[in-house]
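Box S1 | Example of a co-folding query
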Amino acid sequence: MRKISMKNPIVEMDGDEMTRILWKLIKDELLLPYVNLKTEYYDLGLKHRDKTSDEVTIEAARATLKHKVAVKCATITPNRDRVSEYGLKHMYKSPNGTIRAILDGTVFREPIVVKGIEPVVRNWTKPITIARHAYGDVYKDSEIRIPNSGTVSMTYTSDETDDVESVKVFHFDGPGVVLGMYNTDESIRKFAKSCFEYAIAKKEDLWFSTKDTISKTYDHRFKDIFNEEYELNYKAAFEKAGIFYFYTLIDDAVARVMKSEGGFIWALKNYDGDVLSDMVSSAFGSLAMMTSVLVSPNGCFEYEAAHGTVQKHYYRHLKGEQTSTNSVATIYAWTGALKKRAELDGNDRLAAFSNLLEEVTKQTIEEGEMTGDLARITSNPKPIVLNSEEFILAIKRRLDDRIEEI
Ligand code: NAP
Ligand code: MG
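Box S1 (continued) | Returned holo structure for magnesium ion
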């Protein structure tokens, strides 16, 4: 076959441990034989992060702002153990946190649905993507343990005018607790923009839900900002894409989600997203079958697997033992980034290749060849358990059978 060419590069962020091993296998077996891969490579492996005092993470994030598309391998977020294990100069921050702070985006988590790995909710035949607002609310609140009777008030003092506004929160007759939390219009608006951008990119409906009937100022502000953005900036694009924006109360949303067939994006406030993303992802089966995309409000996309570096498997690998680590989410991180690159560059062959790679990956599992984590939960009575490399080669065989279609 004629190798597929690329016009513009994607930013490639290499990572750590078992996922670094999978990264190389995926590139060597599933990408490089077919695509003249154009990447701008940044090594975010912990050793290299330490060597550059974490500058490499910042450079990789800046490169993403420039090239618009990135693919990232899972990376270690160092804790005390890792500082001694790797002899680090510092306990560096989470690379994902650093990248998110620069791209200023929202993370979308999407399950990869295959036959044989059935969601716990029978009617969920299509993926449900969760978008969690990762700023403010209860994660940055201020709390007081109230020791005995007294009054709690909340006061705002303007920096710009003489305005002071105060409300009584509660008069306590005895001990209790109180919390104050905040969010900013700016952050909510960026969250809304990222959600609308992603819905258009995916051509999927966007749902948003809060408790605005009870929280008439706080949650209502989220509802209003989403609505303003939709009416002003996204309505036409939604209509053109044949998708819709749907706001409903969170309790109504939960009930509807359970009865839905999936196939939409569900935007949630910080706490709701934290809780419901764990519920939805575990109901879909496995962390190893979950992709994650960071979308910035100005249209940059960074793709990765939702799981970590699978440390336990790596230590077994280092001892020379067999591993059966699932590479599906990492493969999908690559296909997601390549598809986005293809879309931005109008590169039809690259898009067709990426779709084919996703198809044969699913087909491999659906035909019974899978890694141990899936074999444990599949409805297939006789799964064939492959090791990490065999699984990638099983995908490659199917890819080779059909590559001439491209
Ligand atoms: P993890 O790497 O997600 O693995 C936790 C467990 O989940 C594994 O031991 C394995 O279970 C199972 N698992 C996860 N992914 C799998 C896969 N692809 N195939 C098969 N099984 C899989 O989480 P962790 O062990 O808590 O974290 C390890 C490192 O990853 C940490 O240093 C953490 O900082 C980092 N991390 C990075 C990211 C990121 O870069 N986005 C996210 C999370 C964590 P069994 O052992 O039962 O087989
Ligand atoms: Mg959680």
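Residues 11 and 63 are 7 Å apart (CA to CA). The radius of gyration is 23 Å.
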